[in-house]
Every structure is written in C-alpha cells, then in structure tokens.
Amino acid sequence: MTYGLAHEELHKLLPMSLDTLKSITLEFLVVGVSANSIKNVWSAIEHRHRLAELPFPLAQQRSFQRLFKAVAAIKGTPSRLLFPIGTHHVQRLLQLIGLSALQKRAAVVAVLGTTLCCRVSELANLQMCDLLWDLDAAYHPELRGGLAVRIYKRKQDTGRFGLYQRLPPGLLVIRLRNFVSELGLVKSPRCSKTTAPGARCRVCDPVFPRALVNRNTAEGRKLGDSRMTEGTRQALLPMSRQQMSGAVKVAIEYAPASTLGTTAARACGGAASQQRSRP
User: Fold this and answer.
1) What is the CATH number of the domain that holds 210?
2) Cis bond upstream, residue 15 (ω within 30)
3) Which pairs with CB-CB distance under 8 Å and at least 24 residues apart come from 44-52?
4) Euclidean distance between CA atoms 222 and 214, whole angstroms
5) Domain count, the chain
6) What are the backbone dihedrals phi and psi of residue 260, each rounded to the nearest 5 degrees, phi first?
7) What percent helix, strand, coil does the chain show, rounded to 5?
8) How much is the pLDDT for 160?
9) Which of residues 50, 75, 100 is at a domain's end?
C-alpha cells in the first residue's frame, strides 16, 4: 500500500505484475531491507492474490525460488537454495573408490556434515571421544554397527549435556571407521570429556586432522602411529573451519560429474589437480 500511494499506482497492486513486484523489491534492496523480510513480503502478496483468486506474479514453476536466490546472493544472505547438497551427491561420494588420502577426507567431511546437519565449527571440533560406536547396540540387535556422534554447544542444548545424533549401520559408518583406522586415530584413556564435557579434550585425536600427507612435519609423522608412550599421546591439530569449507567445495565439485568405479576415481583425481592449480 505504501508503494502504491507513493507512486500513485494503487491500481497496479492487485493484481500485481512481475515488473511491479521487481520495482518494489529493488526499492527494498536500496533501503537495506533484509532478504528474509523481502521473502515475507512476497509471501504476503501471494496470499492476497490467492484470497482474491487472482494470478500471482511469481506463480510460474520455481520462479519464486530463482528470484529469491538472486536477492539472497545480492544481500549476502546464506540460503539453503544456494548450492544445495542433494541426496545424489551423498550417494556418489560414498561410492567413489580409489581416492587419495586428501580426497577421502574431503568426501567424508562433506557426507558426514550433510548427514548430521553440522555447522563447520562442529565438524572441526569433532574428536575421537565424540564418536560412540555401537552405542545403541545393547537396545536392539539391528542397531549393531551404528554410530552416535556427540555434539556440544548447540542452541537447543541448554544444559550442555551434548546432543547424540545417530547414524544407522551402513556405508557411511563403514567409510568413517575405515578412515579413522587407516590414519591410526585414537581415543586416549586420559580423555577429559567425562569431567569437562563442554570443553575440548586436550589428549584425544581430532576426527579430521590438519596434517594428512606431509610426513616431513612432526605432526604429519604422528599420523598412523597409534602407539602411546606411558599411556599418553600428544593430540593432533584439527582442521580449521576454512579448510572444512574448502574440503566440502572440492568434494561437491567432482561428485556430480563422476560415475561409479574407477572412472569416478579418475574424475576425482582430475578435479583435485585442477583445484590445486587454481590461483
């Protein structure tokens, strides 16, 4: 109504054309209205048109989503409509074979984070003491081979008791178990999560260590060495949040274009080499 009165175009509000809707949206962007507020206005306009049994300007298939993606990109607002990770990405990443160590880590990071709906910081903070294998096996035999992942400091975890997200027995749990086994990642008997559950453990290994293939560094040489000296082992450094985001980007780049089997491995290696060659 404010737009119609200011421009003396009340007759254009109902029914509203696509050009009028774009003009209103442009004025919202100029004055700094958030993307979610613009989305709410669009929904209200659509509701008014439905009540009057009139065609909505964004009634065509997926036109609402496409235009909102553009608005969200301009405003810098994250949206699930931007670069979504679908079920087919997860399935292909789990079925890739012949991957290098870095490619395995990228695939596991992308699949685990998507399945658990994790934030980047939550993946970076995961440690071996947060992976609880066969936690529910005692309750039902069909749950044997499953995994519970303990995540702290989420908004709904008001008591800081930790949220235990479950992964059923399947290919993801097998791939994750093989991943940590090949690297020799361990949970220390001196784990401090029992006394300070909300703090980071100083002795258990991270699930995704930063140094993975560089054996020339002190940190890299510890990978794959599960031996402990006097019951202690210096913990590895975890991947940073930026490295986590980069791993997901690399994994998603080669997952849609790849096929199963050895062809997937070649496509995966080619994509990884192209990624390394970029400035």
Assistant:
1) 1.10.443
2) yes
3) 45/16, 45/21, 48/14, 49/14, 49/15, 49/16, 52/14, 52/15
4) 10
5) 2
6) -80, 160
7) 50, 10, 45
8) 64
9) 75
- Residue 274 to residue 279: CA distance in whole angstroms: 10
**Domain hosting residue 65, numbered range:** 2-75
Amino acid symbol at 132:
L
Q: What's the pLDDT score for residue 9?
A: 79
Tokens of 58: 């964004």
**Strand order across the beta sheet in which 163-167 lies:** 131-133, 147-151, 163-167
| The pLDDT of residue 219 | 62
The continuous run of DSSP H or E covering 144 comes out as: none
pLDDT digit string (tens) for 229-238?
545 555 588 8
Between the two ends of the chain, the Cα-to-Cα distance in Å is 50
What is the maximum alpha-carbon separation in the chain?
A: 82
